[in-house]
């Protein structure tokens, strides 16, 4: 993995963090803002898994448990949130 790619991914993660902060600061706790913040967090986690954990390009059998954990964590957050909106 090239350090240039890691630098670009890191800059993207910092930009995504700033965007999430901006959404939280300006949009409050609306369902759309919360969903956007969680979607950005999911993309950040995926980038970390792929690049900083060096799972990009390895067999899917190695990536599947980690990506499955990410999906399970997102579901554990989203399901109670959406049910609480009723």
Task: Describe what this molecule looks like in 3D.
By secondary structure, this protein is mainly α. The chain has one domain. Helices cover 84% and strands 0% of the residues. The chain contains 3 helices and no strands. The protein has helices at residues 3-27, 31-52, 60-84. Helix 1 runs antiparallel to helix 2 (31-52) and helix 2 (31-52) packs antiparallel against helix 3. The protein is flat, with a radius of gyration of 15 Å. The mean pLDDT is 92.
Taken as a percent bin, the fraction of beta residues is under 5%
Uncertain runs are: none
The main β sheet shows up as: none
Number of β-strand runs:
0
Computed over alpha carbons, the radius of gyration is 15 Å
Distance between the termini: 46 Å
Shape: flat
SSE order, one letter for each helix or strand: HHH
- Mean pLDDT value: 92
Number of helices: 3
Helix and strand content put the structural class at mainly alpha
Number of domains: 1
Percent helix range: over 70%
For this entry, give a set of tags.
86 residues, mainly alpha, 3 helices
Question: What's the gist of this structure?
Answer:
This protein is mainly α and 86 residues long. It is 84% helix and 0% strand. It contains 3 helices and no strands.
Secondary-structure blueprint of this entry?
Elements: H1 3-27, H2 31-52, H3 60-84
Helix pairs in contact: 1-2, 2-3
